[in-house]
Amino acid sequence: MRRLRACLGAAAAVGLAAAGTTALVAGSASGATSALGNRWYAAAPYLMPLDNDPPDPAAIMDATGLKAFQLAFVLAPNGGGCSPTWGGTAAVSSDTAVQSVVNTIRAKGGDVSVSIGGYGGTKLGQVCSDAAATAAAYQQVITKYGLHAVDFDLEEPEYENTAAIKNEIGAAKILQQNNPGLYVSVTTAGTADGTGWFGKQMLLEAKSQGFTPNNFSIMPFDGGFNGAASQTGALTNFNQILQSTFGWDQATAYAHEGFSGMNGRSDTGEFFTQTDFQTVLDYATGHNMDRFTFWSLNRDRQCTPADNGGRTSGTCSSVAQNSWDFAKYSVKFAGVTPPSSTPTPTPTPTPPGTGCKPAWSSTAVYTAGNEVSYNNHNWKAKWWTQNETPVASDWGVWQDEGAC
């Protein structure tokens, strides 16, 4: 995941009441003194503030009514050490860029959570000596930005490391104890059965440490999923795992369960449209689930025509949409009616083998902008070329335009 890292009626109202609107009040270096209700942190979509062509959060707030953002990702330094950075490169201690984003959001009445981990990079739980040291590193992030919510995104390869997961879960418990009212979510991989062996081991670690977050969320994509029905099936199965692991009844398990989806085309070529999001939203609110979020706001906009749904992008969804269509489902989960907009019809992805440009020829001369097909992909020439086989490369002559 995360790879370049997922009608509100009476049922939703019940879910909102169940989630509660408790707000944490805490001073901080950033000057924040108040928090949103928990339901907003539960609805916060992921935003990379420093990568993947970051969108303007103020524009998203104006267009959708969204108030909360899940900023991603805090990692260990690429060069080693137990101190928090953004993406492994930008030290939290000296950060001003993300702080500016946080200030913009808070100036408009919103707030942020910060996500720890993700798919890439080295996680603090892998390099810090123990849970206390890991928690101390994360506490720097909470203090720096005056956070009222954090997300532990525990997935490959970290969640295959028993010691790292022990550190992360232990750190989460320490942070929860030392920051009263802190909203804590734990996000992990989803499978058709709910979650896999490593996800189940993570749950058992949490049980052994006596740690209960606000929710455990699964990511039902990049695992052979096909639309909303497969995702709601996974959520049902995950609910049963939560029941059997913690001894909860069904309603209690749903109250501690979350969904983290991927909007548009996933890394493995699955497609999740606006219709799929509505179906999962109805399931989440109908079962009084605690969280509904997705990866990511950077992708919540239309791709250029050249993409044609044929590849996964970190900066657009690869499905037909208006900008911020998917953010509006998070707004609905929070219990707010988003501004209306003209709906965009859900597209049918172009099947492989169709829409191909003329076949590439080793003898032909191509100039900038010429398009060809090769190995079931379309390619566009960046400059004059002859007898250069189309292949994906940042420095090569050919630009991959996706499968055809």
Throw out a few tags for this protein.
404 residues; three-stranded antiparallel β-sheet; 17 strands; 18% strand
Topology, please?
Layout: H1 10-19, H2 38-43, E1 46-47, H3 57-64, E2 68-75, E3 85-86, E4 90-91, H4 97-107, E5 111-117, H5 124-127, H6 131-145, E6 149-153, H7 162-178, E7 183-189, H8 197-209, E8 215-219, H9 228-246, H10 250-255, E9 257-262, E10 264-265, E11 271-272, H11 274-286, E12 291-295, H12 327-333, E13 365-366, E14 371-374, E15 377-381, E16 385-386, E17 398-403
Parallel strand pairs: 1-2, 2-5, 5-6, 6-7, 7-8, 8-9, 9-12
Antiparallel strand pairs: 2-3, 3-4, 10-11, 13-16, 14-15, 15-17
Helix pairs in contact: 6-7, 7-8, 8-9, 9-11, 11-12
Major β-sheet, in short?
10 strands, mixed
**Average pLDDT over all residues:** 88
The general outline is globular
Question: How widely separated are the two ends?
Answer: 24 Å
Overview of this protein structure:
The protein is of the alpha/beta class. The protein has helices at about 10-20, 40-45, 55-65, 95-105, 125, 130-145, 160-180, 195-210, 230-245, 250-255, 275-285, 325-335; strands at about 45, 70-75, 85, 90, 110-115, 150-155, 185-190, 215-220, 255-260, 265, 270, 290-295, 365, 370-375, 375-380, 385, 400-404. Strands 1, 2, 3, 4, 5, 6, 7, 8, 9 and 12 form a 10-stranded mixed beta sheet that branches. Strands 14-15-17 form a 3-stranded antiparallel beta sheet, with no helix packed on it. A two-stranded antiparallel sheet has the order 10-11. A hairpin with a 5-residue loop joins strand 10 and strand 11. Helix 7 (about 160-180) packs across helix 8 (about 195-210), helix 8 (about 195-210) runs parallel beside helix 9 and helix 11 runs parallel beside helix 12 (about 325-335). The longest helix has 19 residues, at about 230-245. It starts with 9 loop residues before the first helix and ends with a strand.
